[in-house]
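User: Sequence in, structure out. Go.
Assistant: Echoing your sequence, followed by the structure tokens.
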Amino acid sequence: MDEYVLPADSAWHAAAEARGIPDDSGGTTKASRAGSEGCGTCFLPGLRPDEPGTRLSNLDYAPLAEVMGRLPWASEVFNCSAPDTGNMELLHLFASSEQRTQWLVPATAG
């Protein structure tokens, strides 16, 4: 957050003012930093070692969500925005193999 997201906030607001909420919503930052640094899709406590994301309990994730809540677009950078978080959690817990392939894998990849 401090190194990449907070410094980009003024650019995000300038883009939002110029053309409405940016379509990217931090996507460049997400693609280039969050996943490669192991801090994306961090709300799924039941992740297996071979699944993408960061396995955190709800207790571990709560302070991160609080920090991401400082900016309206920060949770998108970490692939933790609503409604994706709830949808991914339900798919992770209950999806068939086909549903996982079609919906969960692309969602957890950002």
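User: And one key feature?
Assistant: Helices lie at 9-19, 27-34, 58-68, 74-77, 84-94, 97-108.
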